[in-house]
Amino acid sequence: MSNNEMPKAYEPGNIEKKWYPLWEERKYFHGSANKDKKPYSIVIPPPNVTGILTLGHVLNNTLQDILCRYHRMKGYEVSWFPGTDHAGIATEARVEKFLRKEENTGRDILGRDEFIRRVWEWKEKYGGTIIKQLRTLGSSCDWEKERFTMDAGLSDAVQKVFVELYNKGYIYRGQRMINWCPVAKSALSDEEVIYRDVPGKFYHFKYPLSDGSGFLVVATTRPETMFGDTAVAVNPEDERYKHLIGKTVNLPLCNRPIPIVGDQHADPTKGSGCVKITPAHDPNDFEVGKRHNLAIINIMNPDASLNDKCPEEFVGLDRFTARDLTVKRMEEAGLLIKIEDITHAVGYSERGEVPIETLVSYQWFCNMKELAKPAMEAVASGKIKFYPERWTKTYFHWMENIQDWCISRQIWWGHRIPAWYNRDNNDEIYVGPGKPDKPGRWEQEEDVLDTWFSSWLWPFSIMGWPEKTADLEYFYPTATLVTGPDIIFFWVARMIMAGCEFMKEIPFKNVYFTSIIRDEQGRKLSKSLGNSPDPLDVIDQYGADALRFSIIYIAPVGMDIKYSNEKCEIGRNFANKLWNACRFRRMQGDATLTFKALDTETLANLSDDEKWMLGKLDNLVESVQTYLKDFQFHSATHDIYELVWSEFCDWFIEAEKQPLRKGGTDKERAMKVLDYALYRILRVLHPFMPFITEELAHQMGFLGDDESIMFAEFPETDGLFAANREAIALADGKFDLVRAGRALKTNYNLADGRKVNFHLKAADDAKLAYLQANADSIIHLLNAAEVTISLADYDSAANGAAPSQLCDLGTIYLPLAGLIDVAEEKAKLEKQKAELEKWIAGTKAKLNNEKFVSKAPAQVVADTRSALAQNEEKLERTLSLLKDLG
RNA sequence: GGGCGAUUAGCUCAGUUGGUUAGAGCGUUUGCUUUACACGCAAAAUGUCGGGGGUUCGAGUCCCUCAUCGCCCACCA
Hints:
This protein is of the alpha/beta class. The protein has 31 helices and 29 strands. β22, α15 (488-503) and β23 (508-513) form a beta-alpha-beta unit. The longest helix is centred in the last third of the chain and has 30 residues, at 633-662. It binds one RNA strand through β8, β12, β13, α11 and β25.
């Protein structure tokens, strides 16, 4: 292959499109039980089946892919289990919307069976887009194992778990206070409620005593719920009201007498000390109601409009309309005392833009207390480690206060609860995998289970549980879970509980919590804000490798990422740099084919620069492995970037141009070293940038057509760092010296291309020998005409002025004679010095004049001050240059 | 109310167990068609490490405190 087949700039598009299908065809991603290898497995956090790829997924899946590819290269048998989640409420809403729009039909028209059939149809046709998109990112998922949370096998797992927990007494059906979403018309778990601080009003009402002896004052933020009031509570110790306990008030607008009860819940120090009690719509009131045996009056329809338990003119009104009308009627009745503006936290439905309702309803619950115990122990003992570790605190806080989990949902898309009611026998309940074979009219529960009730089984259900599969035996428990901290309760904690309960074994050893991606202004990425870039467009523009590398490169550890597309230039430019380093090597000749291990002769004859480069690279190999062990992906990319760009390209390639130019054995050796180093770099980089590394490894002739870098051994230490510490320090010193020399040139406005002479005064005998041995290299790197090296100071008396710079290896001098007219330069500087001194003196006087400072516009004063500072600096530089000139 | 995190260059962020002169990328300035790369090369400028106090020979790093911002949880008749 000749060099002109490598374009000047790296073009990722076709190369990425070429490799991925090849990898997949060759089943490189597939893992199966293999006794000769150690297993390494990861389960993907299943994206919603309705989902499309977002930057969050990009980050998350890039990290998983890095781990998988790294371990594959380390010789593990790797399987990354992919799949999607049926996402009950979200998908049902999505398909419902689709059907309304396209066919003007929906749930209510189609009926349960047909609707579910249509959801499946939609899923087959439009679902799983994200799974295809993950391929463009380079994700090395074991696609043969792709699962869906509603697959038959996973449904079996869900049923088995439900029945088992029911039989253990953990799952029960009961009438409890729950969160109700009026849009989904379903119950939600506590975790699905999002609290937002919103402006609201606090209404103070009079509730007249039934005996006409006066009234009590109650306050509420929810006037419309008063139709569900079944008591007013006062504190039994409250001297103002204790004599009223047992009497009644007339509930306004309904004229229904309700009792005054004495209860601790009423706090005498708050408001009037009287509390209206609405057991059906407030968690505290529900408890009060239980204590006093109060009626529970649900006043709402499923869509949160008021029902027929309310006065006629309110029936059917939306809750917010009803609120206004209630207040109006109370005011008309002279029962409104005042309205205060307040800010309070209101619970919103996770999906909808609407406030949830708390109301009492019959639902299925799972008692989590016992399940939580081993799960807490698993993290406390360190069997499961969290990265960053601080999330354990959040985990324990939630687990220690864990509440019963409301698992039933009043929707159709999901796992239907395996419970049957005997309509002939007072709704006797049977729970089991199928309809009971017992007499009676048995009807299955209409409700389905919370989506997370299948997700929490994912790490083992995806491997075939409850069947005893080879995958389960070999790959469980998985190695690392990579996910966002926002689902620590929804998913992570529950998976740990499920693993401990049903597998008697933790589901993963590490949990790595990713950052949340925000836009440049720090806002969350969202569709409605339009600030959410489409990763496919980004990949199109910059390449998948560039996106992967950049997003890891900019991800601060454990904090939010501020992302913008321009940041992908980091990865794109880096890929281009690497491409051109390889292109340069190709221009020197064909691969040496000895790169896999340097032969002893080459090792014995390494130049100082080569020792330096191979030593630094060896050090990188070690540090990247350490970083990956600690999930410090960001540090790993920074170190690789620095080594490739600054050390390999800026210094080493430049230095190697010398031996390459010389030819003969020098050139041969240099090419071998370049090959050896490049192949090590490509392999270290492969987990991060899979496409370009595969392409280059082949372009460079490091691999045959039937080979892949995916299975090349990840570089281990070759001992060249430990062996060359001294050589590394010396070369670092040499490069410092070169840098100082270049700076001297720039200071005197000598163009890069201009060949000048330098003098080096070595710091000691050893350094003298080193500098002399490296004279050619130094001349080359400085682009110098001639460099004299000795232990002697530069003789400025004899040879004219020469500014110098002190370095570790010695002092570098730039003789100016012949380059610039010293006398003329000196005169120019003296003139400049005088002008500056005059200006500075005048300006200082001006600034010391209080009248100027106090009366001149602030901007003028500030400008004067900054100009002064600038000129003072300029003067300093001038003085320093004058000193150099002698 | 409880918890967690952040505050370092114009911007985005590194800074490992305290240890020479606090770093990078982007941006800015200057100069470069140097036998890979302008998606490039060389050089340069820029910091009260949020404020205050303390521990220490030594603090960006540890402790206390205050301030601001963000997130999570709980509560709110």
